[in-house]
């Protein structure tokens, strides 16, 4: 049957995507649990977690983005049957993770000064800064986990990642209960306690993944491959990953800026923004997982020099992402007040959140389309164009719309979020256009051992 190759690819993508989605949801669950548990203390504590988490994640996402260079490097090498190149890629990823941890840590230090300069609510700043500082011990294990996770996903070995993330979430709940509320003889640290719990859980997550997947990771981690410390390939991976990091920073930065602008409107608005953002981020984990699966499936096809297979993998992933996010759009638009009850019992916060959640529903399909398209381009080794598209969409379209609606037209929090809708729509359509353009041509593998100019996408 004519449609059977596409259906077969869709099933294969789904089989890989489902455990990746579980992992993404597990990583997101830590933040959701932190938010829900801290939300029982006060709106001020909830706002502190909102601002602190945005700041900390903005730093971590830069390092994580660079390490996403492992997607095309390792997946394409495995697709080509070049296991030595795959092993060198994994080992170089760990080296980059260690090097990246220092600038990420340094970015955490001036948090209190920066939040003060950004005129965030004074009652929120001490706990928000404490949250960021308590996140410092989790930087190295988080980046190491990213390297191991990306490598195992490229091998289609996802069960150990799921096991590690489940264990880390259980530990996070227990430590939150102890450190936020002061149970089992521990002091009640409130919002800052949730960050200490997350840092400890990230350490356990990385160690647990290494232990659970040692049979798969051992052959690629030992022995140290010849040339793995050579500067030129490391720089080539850095050049491949930096645009991904900037792309992530631009997107996270847009949402973080909206969060900071909410701070100008008040503590209630920041807390409501965090609730709506948590829900939108939770649904986003599914297309993000599909995006990771698309990067692997497309990367393997590129390694085989299978242009038709790369196209099929791309369209299967887009179909899955759009279908899911369409259903989430209906849910968020239909029952916003029911959803707010899981986060807060304060009527003033719930009222603002109930306005923002349906707006999140309107950008669901665009959000899914843009992240899956970015994953497809990453699998192709095309990382510069998505970065440029993010600048155009989020900062030259979305942000001006947010500012105009919120402050000039007095639309308040809703105006800020309608700007996000405009930005996401622009990014999604431009990225989709880039996917279509790239897949018109034959695919070719990225080889970091060559000069980076030879690997530049057409």
List the helices and strands and how they pair.
Elements: H1 4-39, H2 43-67, H3 70-79, H4 83-108, H5 111-117, H6 125-134, H7 139-154, H8 159-181, H9 191-212, H10 214-221, H11 231-265, H12 267-303, H13 307-334, H14 336-340, H15 347-362, H16 364-380, H17 384-408, H18 412-438
Helix pairs in contact: 1-2, 1-8, 1-9, 1-12, 1-13, 2-4, 2-6, 2-7, 2-9, 2-11, 2-12, 3-4, 3-7, 3-12, 4-7, 5-6, 6-9, 7-9, 8-9, 11-12, 11-17, 11-18, 12-13, 12-15, 12-16, 13-15, 13-16, 15-18, 16-18, 17-18
Question: How would you describe this structure to a colleague?
Answer:
This protein is an all-alpha fold and 458 residues long. The protein has one domain. It has 18 helices and no strands. The chain is globular, with a radius of gyration of 21 Å. The C terminus is likely disordered.
Q: How would a textbook summarize the main sheet?
A: none
Number of helices: 18
Average per-residue pLDDT, rounded, comes to 89
- Alpha-carbon distance between the termini? 34 Å
- The percentage helix is over 70%
Order of helices and strands: HHHHHHHHHHHHHHHHHH
> What is the tally of beta strands?
0
Apparent shape: globular
Which value, in Å, is the CA radius of gyration? 21 Å
Strand content: under 5%
Provide the number of structural domains.
Answer: 1
Structural class: mainly alpha
Identify low-pLDDT runs: 451-458
